[in-house]
């Protein structure tokens, strides 16, 4: 089993950007935690981050062509308006899980709607790094059931 963990805009600034919402740990800290979880589960994870919408779309397509078992995606602000990312998710027949560090439902009004919610298989948010861990466990269990 191979999972792509894909992070969108500004997530490279974890630990610096708005720590009241996102905490003080870095993206490298998150990747290390998830790598430990993956090794313990006997699966492979690949990490990618971009601030560019088209690059995120290319990685989603690549995940299909490289036969990834699933994708964990934090699209950042693209969550709220990127129909291009929504269409990319809808066009690939592998499970994509939406993840957010903060609880977007309790944030500013413009952050409360996800245009990708209808095309992902699950969503985990509001639990900081644990949201990613929950998403990874979800895909592992889903993969074991198939």
Question: Secondary-structure blueprint of this entry?
Answer:
Elements lengths: L1 E6 L11 H4 L4 H15 L2 E6 L3 H13 L4 E5 L8 H9 L4 E5 L21 E4 L3 H17 L1
Parallel strand pairs: 1-2, 1-3, 3-4, 4-5
Helix pairs in contact: 2-5, 3-4
What's the short version?
By secondary structure, the protein is of the alpha/beta class. Helix content is 40%, strand content 18%.
Q: Determine the CATH topology.
A: Rossmann fold
Uncertain segments are none
- Overall average residue pLDDT: 93
- How many domains make up the coordinates? 1
Element pattern in H and E:
EHHEHEHEEH
What percentage of the residues does DSSP assign to strands (E)? 15-25%
CA radius of gyration is: 14 Å
What is the count of helical runs? 5
Main sheet record: 5 strands, parallel
Q: Tell me the CATH architecture.
A: 3-Layer(aba) Sandwich
Structural class: alpha/beta
CATH superfamily: Dehydroquinase, class II
The best one-word shape is globular
Number of strands: 5
Share of helix among residues? 25-40%
Distance between the termini: 11 Å
**In CATH's first tier, which class applies?**
Alpha Beta
- Order of strands, widest sheet: 2-1-3-4-5
Characterise this structure:
Helix 2 runs parallel beside helix 5 and helix 3 runs parallel beside helix 4. With 146 residues, the chain is α/β, with parallel strands linked by helices. It has helices at residues 19-22, 27-41, 53-65, 83-91, 129-145, and strands at 2-7, 44-49, 70-74, 96-100, 122-125. Helices cover 40% and strands 18% of the residues. A five-stranded parallel β-sheet has the order 2-1-3-4-5, sandwiched between helices. It is built from five helices and five strands. Strand 3, helix 4 and strand 4 (96-100) form a beta-alpha-beta unit. It has one domain (2-145): Dehydroquinase, class II (Rossmann fold, 3-Layer(aba) Sandwich), CATH 3.40.50.9100. The longest helix is centred in the last third of the chain and has 17 residues, at 129-145. The radius of gyration is 14 Å and the shape is globular.
